[in-house]
Design a protein that fits this description.
The chain is 33% helix and 34% strand. The chain starts with a strand and ends in a 14-residue tail after the last helix.
């Protein structure tokens, strides 16, 4: 996945991280918190804080322990919540550490680690741009589609909730 950037969805003023398939046309919008959005955006812009923030500190810890972040994987979408793993190279072995996608992406930007998403996640939550549509218009369309959903859309047939 390619990190397109962080957008703010209006009028709710809710930050969204927008990922795009590297070899496809689908986008994966992930709502994140304001602090995490700022951490991602500042790293993308190359802003160096006067003192290390949490993601900078974690990068320093990884560097100090000679641990390499191999990749980030958005692993699943369960109950409208995304999950991710940090995949670390530690002493010749691969270690998976569960993470919120926003924290994983903030760290990936700082370590230049690639970002992946499972095919199931992209299939379930990926959105394609319509002809001539911008990324901002895509986010707006995604928000409107979510506004139109009801609880019944999430229930299995015959499920009483």
């Amino acid at each position: 996945m390619a990190l397109v950037g962080v957008r703010v969805e209006l009028p709710a003023n809710q930050p969204i991280v927008l990922l795009r398939e590297a070899s496809g046309s689908r986008f994966l919008p992930i709502w994140v918190g304001a602090v995490e959005a700022t951490a991602i955006a500042s790293a993308l812009e190359g802003v160096e804080p006067p003192r290390p923030l949490t993601h900078d500190l974690l990068k320093s810890v990884l560097d100090g322990l000679s641990v390499t972040m191999s990749r980030v994987v958005v692993t699943e979408l369960r109950d409208s919540v995304f999950y991710a793993d940090l995949v670390l190279a530690v002493d010749g072995r691969e270690v998976h550490v569960s993470s919120r996608p926003s924290d994983a992406i903030a760290l990936a930007v700082r370590t230049s680690a690639p970002i992946f998403a499972s095919a199931d996640v992209v299939e379930e939550a990926g959105i394609e741009l319509e002809d001539g549509e911008s990324a901002e218009e895509l986010v707006d369309r995604f928000r409107k589609e979510l506004d139109d959903l009801s609880i019944e859309d999430f229930l299995e047939p015959g499920d009483n909730g």
